[in-house]
């Protein structure tokens, strides 16, 4: 006879989120639901339930651990507000805590403060000036092929249609437009191994790297002005490695070069340029992501800039705005977090910037 | 009540070695007693017992795992025959086996064939022309500060007095005189770390290494003739390393340079030269061993060369002959092993070279 198994009800606790609360409080609530990349489901469930219960004017759907919502008011323009809900691994910096105007904790700056502002406005602006789409997505902090926004682009492309995309990545409350592209290549020099006591029998691959480094040192990067944003390029060795043993002439040396390029170059053009710079060398591409044009001449972008009362600057780091730019959508980075604190143990956000960003976006959307 | 413990006699088996046997057979017997550095005691015991029992004309002592023996015949000249008895770790290449004229196994070339020739001659030449000193020492293949010859130099200096030292390191049966010195330095370039997307805020230490590599590439090494032996110098990068992450401008790069220098330079002079070559750079010495002058003008060395019927060549690798040279003793590398097979899995020795070396040394010493 089989033993009797008591029937049990598994209760999954979905934290309650109050989207109508002060966005600073909402930021803290989001931060206090851990959501390291790949383990966002509890936070996704909480966001989905809160949107369904507290924002009945929105159409809400799920895509894996991503939560999407939108109005269908027939407005002339549609603004998409996007934020990733995952974080880097927790560094003993949860739960969140306040110190004066600062809110500390993993994900405060990168980028749950941005998520909180977007969720609060979407829930409370029941009659926005523009149609709104909310995209809260997963797995931004890890390998590009797991990125939730990429999955949405493949599976739900109609959900990404918009006239302007605002990505809540940390910018310190300033407007950073477009983004630079990034290319990583390995340049290999070759030689012939030999005992260093008989070095004339060998051919030193590390010595051959002198010319590669000299070309890097002599390189003059461009400054490119697009829509009033200046993109400063850079071509840098980020790694060099060669050597077999302390008594061996090395037969290989690898210089890893990172090219950050202005968005007036396509990915292909950037690669062609780097191939030109290192003509004659063995070159392997290990990473290539296109940049994003700022698209500030679009009417929706102009209206947003007017609401902020400031001008836009170029975004230097690569962000998911490039996915929107590739779809032809003007895309802007605008979030209350501090980019210099992202991924740090002491990560925090200035609550005054959260409130200011909320006011700016409400003026633009309300 | 405590349990009864059966009394047991621990029998350590000391292998029997026949020093009067054919030196090829003796080589195989030595190889078949494993003696990886630090674990030479069984072989030391066997050598000590064999010398005491089969060579009563020799004074025999122990120094740790080293075994020393000498005649005291009052001859005009004393010849010292030195060989390390340790090997690198066994690479599934024991016990020894014969394939035609070749004897395979760990330590065959480096350098139990040399040890066998020396032990056989010392045991069978009861009335040598020159007084003889045998030094079989431990721990040559590992850190210099554990080298048995260094310990003997400190604790038993009178045992190293001689007019000529012959070291049985593998030379393929040719005479290799003196040895080159070796100097290893780390050259550091410095910079300032920054995100590679904002590279103008940083200063790339890897780019600064271009000049270090350029100086290496432009360096013209000397060929130095001493006593008819040509020492070819070499200045080589043996390692280069720099890099923090794929998106960071590196703030440090380290080039490890190995200078192999002719023995007309002292260690200090070699270092001063390398400091000159890399003037202006941060330089750290990690290894410095002086070379050894060939000393071929000494009468004992001339007699040995006459017995071989050949001329001497420069030794390029560093060996323990430099310890004898530092004591003012002409020192020669002469062993039947093949230097190119040392430390290899397929290590072997040509038995014909063992026999030829035995004949040459018997002619010189007999």
From TrEMBL, chains A, B:
GO MF annotation list: succinyl-diaminopimelate desuccinylase activity
Pfam family, one: M20_dimer
Required cofactor names: Zn(2+)
SUPFAM superfamilies for the chain: Bacterial exopeptidase dimerisation domain, Zn-dependent exopeptidases
EC assignment: 3.5.1.18
The keyword Hydrolase is annotated on this UniProt entry: yes
Residue span(s) of domain Peptidase M20 dimerisation: 181-278
Secretion signal, residue range per the UniProt entry: none
Family matches, as PANTHER family: ACETYLORNITHINE DEACETYLASE (PTHR43808), N-ACETYL-L-CITRULLINE DEACETYLASE (PTHR43808:SF31)
Protein name: Succinyl-diaminopimelate desuccinylase
